[in-house]
Amino acid sequence: MEKNIGKIITLVQKGNDKSTSKEQVSWAVDYFKDILEKKWFTVNVSDEINNKKGIGLTIIIEDTQSDPSTDFLSKEDQPIAPESFVIERVTVKDQPTLFVIGADVRGLVYAILELSDIVQNATDPLQELLNLTRIKEQPANPIRSVKRLFVNEKLDKSWFYDKDFWREYLSELANQRFNRFSLALGMGYDLGHDPDIKDFYFCFAYPFLVSVPGYKVNVSDLSEDERNKNLETLRFIGQETKRRGLEFQVGIWTQAYEPEDSPDIRYKISGLNEENHAPYCRDALKTLLTECPEIDGLTIRVHYESGIPEPAHLFWKVVLEGPALSGRPVNLDLHPKGIDDELLQVAEDNGIPFTISPKFWAEHMGLPYHQAEIRETELPIEPNPEAGKMIITTTSRRFTRYGYADFFKEDRNYDIFFRIWPGTQRVLLWGDPEMAAEYGRAGSFCGSTGVELMEPLSFKSRKTSETTTGRDPYVDPSLRLGLQDWRKYLYSYRLWGRLLYNPDANPETWRRYLRNEFQTAADSCESSLKYASKILPLFTVAHSPSVANNNYWPEIYSNIMIVDQEEKPAYHCDGREPATFNHVSPLDPGLFYRVDEFTEDMIKDQISSKISPIETANLLEEFASLATQHLSDATKAIGKHQEPSFRRLAIDVKVQSGLGLFFANKFRAGTAFAFFEKVGDPELLNQALTYYRAAKIAWEQVVDVTKDVYTDDITFGYVPFMRGHWADRVQAIEDDIANMEKQMDLAKKEVSLEEVERAKKWLFQIQVDNVSSCEHTPPTEFQRGDDIKIALELPNASPEVNVKLKYRQVNQAQSYQSLTMERQGERVVTKIPSSYTDSPYPLVYYFEIETADNQKQMYPGFDNSLCNQPYFSIRQSR
């Protein structure tokens, strides 16, 4: 850095511009100036260009409303879209100059922070700046949000009150181009499910923050000083959020003041009853928005888990008046689980524009596309009085719980964005640029407006499951980060934020960080983590015993037995019965086979185009192998001296690779055992045991990697399958293997040689006769009530190839329709009938191609990265 001494960077911030004089831009300039000075540059902040030659660089900051100093940019190159920017290198008065031009305040902030990031991560910052080629970016998604949860009083107060934490954390979010920060209160418990609640701090949030005029509502053991401190802290968080150009969203996830079956609750609330409950919540929302003007928006859970029994339209009609009564604009976001048309009308009648935020992949993270189909156990059923306070959400509207449901009507009066829940990956480092980019594209699916990410470690120590190691899951003191636990995931935040902003971003936007962190090992670190990060999302999509994140945790998988037993351990199944591995449904049963379904079809020789468990196993093994190879290269490049950041990455890559091998071999073991049950050949049982023992070895390697690294009790809840360590799960694996060894009695003395041959063919080798060079151009749009012509080009395909069109409305309660396509030379054609398009919904569709030897494949299907939308979608003309 000494070589920067004497080098001058002049920042020209034009004070007469509409945007450059704003507080957010001034903050970004100060942030940039601080980074430059830490690199030993001399920084001048001026309102005119320095005429001296050869001393450094001038950076001119202005918006698109400026005087004509940006005439060197054509009209097409000017940043126009909200939040867009251009950085252009030119020479002015013989001085190297960078023009930083934003369409608005946020665009300017992003442009300045981009330069900050380049300087922060460069070995020769000045040369990097002098050699810049034009950078022009604009956002793909209007909403790019991060949600942080307060779920445990003992642990979360430490960061909630820490002002230095907020300054650093929010600066990182702004630097990675998130434009919203959401603080969730009341997600510690789901009041429809949890008995014996202890920690009620911030669950019914209002009286912990404000005193509402006209009500005598008190919280036991909460002083007025602490309540005032809470509001002061909330205001500080909001001020710091807005100073960095982000919106400040507050989530109120619980509306019940007295949880049932919880006699030992801390912070009991008095002064409310059935008559004044709804009016109090309404007036509390109004008071909160008045007392904390920094709040830009509210997220509200409007189903029974908020503690309000269904149906509750009259309750919500009163409560949702609160934001309207505040007298100022508010971003109202309704968590849509259980929402029906009547509740949508209640929200609409309130007069405030609102958004709904469905879950992207239930309460987990899957591959970066929206489910082609939901599990059969999520489809709507007739209302049942036994459902009690869940009578809407768990019956007629239960398909709204874990996806976009039927909310994508083209004539809707609300916006939609998606929330990625933290069930799949909570602790281990994630980083796949391909996947993040495709999530960025999927964020605008059928006109939706973006994505909210529930940050890593969300729900840590939830439901009073705190441990002595606190929120940081490491026990190795050299790896612990304490209150800075979030810094482990800097690369994850970078990929999510920047690729939600621009899915086509230059890879330099993340690779500069990796080079600064890992030097010559950067490329190998990127590749190893990329392949490792595909493993758990793929497994989540292919195997989903529970859609609930408080039941299912693939990272530290509680073993689901392959061999059915009368007495099963308590574990995470809410789907098909019996609750065994081979009966577990995929999270997308439209594109992925269930194990028992696959083996049944194979024995009958009735293959479909779904991805089989053996294909999934092969992909998992391939990703694990590639991750391991690249990690080996990275380790060699790093050498003996390994910084904690590399050790954290290396450990987590090894864990995910081990999980990939475990799940791959368990899929094979389950498939072999299912074939054995159907065919009776003892060789199939022996093969199942071989695979299962290989799976156990892979799991034991994960245990070895994590021993004395992660704490023995990582907690995300109080039930056994939501806490613990990988070592805790070994015994259940061994028990299942022992039970499988006892199944030889099921072997048949006489077996069908044809069935045995067919079983072994599909167990050991999947042969798909791919149809080469399929070509299809989707219609750009369709007119409601008109036929839609669909054509697929099949150049050089055999005449015996048959194609079916599978299509449905963008409504997850609907089933796929099927049409056999007509052959016309080297193409096949059909029409989606007008009777089907006469609905308010867009359409999704894909092709199922059958070859002469009864092989089937889907098109477009997945590419090698598994990071594409495997079907087509078309919207109605608007």
TrEMBL record:
Where is coiled-coil annotated? Answer: 730-757
Q: InterPro entries per the record?
A: Hex-like_dom2
Task: Give UniProt keywords alphabetically.
Answer: Coiled coil, Hydrolase
Question: What is the protein name given in its UniProt record?
Answer: Alpha glucuronidase N-terminal domain-containing protein
Taxonomy-wise, where does this protein's organism fall, top ranks first? Bacteria, Bacillati, Bacillota, Bacilli, Bacillales
